[in-house]
Amino acid sequence: MNKVVLVTGANSGIGLALCERLLSQDTEGLQLCLACRNMCRAQAARSALLTSHPTAQVALLQLDTSSISSVISAAQEVKLRYNRLDYLYLNAGIMPNPKFDVQAFLKGIFSRNIITMFATGKGILTQKDSVTSDDLQEIFATNIFGHFLLIRELEPILCQAGKTSQLIWTSSSNAHRSAFNLEDIQHQRGTQPYSSSKYASDLLSLALNTHFNKQGLYSSVICPGFVMTNLTHGILPCFPAFLWTLLMPVFWLIRIFTNTFTLTPYNGAEALFWLFKQKPQSLDPQAKYHSLTSGLGKNYTQPRKMDVDLETSEALYDKLLKLESEVRKYLKEKQKSTRASSHFRT
Ligand SMILES: NC(=O)c1ccc[n+]([C@@H]2O[C@H](COP(=O)([O-])OP(=O)(O)OC[C@H]3O[C@@H](n4cnc5c(N)ncnc54)[C@H](OP(=O)(O)O)[C@@H]3O)[C@@H](O)[C@H]2O)c1
């Protein structure tokens, strides 16, 4: 039986590296679906994968996780194409307008927190968020809510009697409880919407396990480590790509002290790939699975306890369900008014 695997944000970075790794281990038994917002970039990724794996089954799906209508129509398309979904990788993510806090960085360098600062980016990264056309905070909508809605829409093909399916979130070590506020889940009022959204994914994964394990659906989170991708290049947008390359020896040096500097998308995808091969029942719902690379360049996956609790995860889950029902109401009204205006035009 073919396994159906859907990866969001599959056209670049860690998502694309995961697809390459999955096909390298098994070309025949996989139906891979690349869910991307930009179809030109998606097509280029598909062509690259087919160049190295000409017989692979690689399909494309248009999905913009920041747009409610896009998520709903993508989910409908998936349900038409596939009877079931074995793996759903919730990987698409953004960190727009990041600001590197030089002062906090210099302070961190001369403090006891230097390793934590390098390993997690804690305290040195802020972002400026914007609002989507659905009136949601963009980072929250892209990284969390769009994925939540996608899972809800795909429930019938994820939860099937006698079968298991896996949800696998690309979270981050930058997910900090201190950046998250249950009274402001979209992070409208803070300066760390990325960290908040990643912490929310950790909480949500725990809640999904509570609600869906009995139906054969399991959720896990990973951290890819610090990887050089479009997302990280955006941290210093004035920094040309070759300067990042020049910095590589420094990063290799740092890797001796913190194995979270995985650096390449291939290494960063280690935990995503490792989870593909695990029995989901054997995984710890309170652990984050870290892609790590040793100073000698050896890749491995290590679970580390997350700073999450059941009570907060349930509270977030309830809030997401409430937001989902508001969003569905808003969609219905929008459809009604579009129908009415087209009726008046005829
Ligand atoms: N790089 C790191 O060091 C690091 C560390 C921790 C966690 N992460 C997480 O790893 C994941 C992958 O990021 P990456 O580092 O591989 O960066 P990347 O190369 O920029 O990949 C991000 C992917 O997400 C897609 N995406 C963004 N917004 C989307 C939307 N609204 N709808 C659908 N797809 C969308 C991007 O598509 P486009 O090409 O169209 O933009 C791209 O394919 C993210 O969730 C990120 O937060 C990365």
TrEMBL record:
It comes from the Eukaryota. It catalyses: 4alpha-methyl-5alpha-cholest-8-en-3-one + NADPH + H(+) = 4alpha-methyl-5alpha-cholest-8-en-3beta-ol + NADP(+); a 3beta-hydroxysteroid + NADP(+) = a 3-oxosteroid + NADPH + H(+); 3-dehydro-4alpha-methylzymosterol + NADPH + H(+) = 4alpha-methylzymosterol + NADP(+); 17beta-estradiol + NADP(+) = estrone + NADPH + H(+). GO terms for biological process: cholesterol biosynthetic process; estrogen biosynthetic process. Residues 313-340 form a coiled coil. Its main location: endoplasmic reticulum. One of its GO terms (cellular component) is endoplasmic reticulum membrane. This is 3-keto-steroid reductase/17-beta-hydroxysteroid dehydrogenase 7. It comes from Channa striata.
